[in-house]
Amino acid sequence: FNVANAGSGDLTWSVTDNQEWITTSPSSGTNYGSVNVSVSGNGLSTGNYSGTVTVSSNGGTGDVAVLMNVPADLPPVAVQLYEPTDITPSAMTLSWETSADTDFLSYKLYRGASATVDESSTLVTTITNRYTTEHIDGNLQDGTTYYYKLYVEDGAHQTTGSNVVSGTTLTEPGVWGSFATMAVDLKWISALTSIFVYAVGDSGKIYKWDGTSWTEEQSPTTERLSGVTIIAEDDIWISGEGGVWHYNGALWVQE
């Protein structure tokens, strides 16, 4: 509002208010001037508020009524959570859009074992910087599917959840081990089961794995063997420089 001098002399005036939520500027002046009045509902409950700004001067006193309504605090708007990226056997990266909530307090990222992940699930991280919109979730199990949901929290501790996304960690590669060292070079191996395995190689050597150890089997030849196929325990074929042999469960027969 404006203060004006309608008389012929100098007008000296000052401005006061009766509520903490009212701010005025300037607080005083001479003759003519504009007074800015602002209000703030921070920390106030929902409802209607009234106050008074008083202008006191050597020419008289005047009051200006100030009314304010503090609306109900609405929950924050949900943000979009994007599909996980940079997935490894033990980690994945989660990212999301920036919250535009004027009363932003934090992001809370939750992880679960199903699509019903919510605020009762595992809290992965709490981020209070509005512009930090990425987090790497580590120490995960390989070959496992994880579900995520991001909640935006406002100053009144109201939360709104995002969409649910999921990611499956990669399977950790296995480690090769050495079961045995053979006296000859092996050329081929075939397995019917994990406890019925045959390997063949130089000098007609045939070895059998029973799940515990390798044993050398009787061979029909001393020539190099380069192939073996197991159809059944009594139906095994080997081949090499000397020809093809078939094992019928009792003996090897050259075909």
TrEMBL record:
Fibronectin type-III domain ranges (all copies): 75-174
CDD domains: FN3
SMART domains: FN3
Protein name: Fibronectin type-III domain-containing protein
Lineage: unclassified sequences, metagenomes, ecological metagenomes
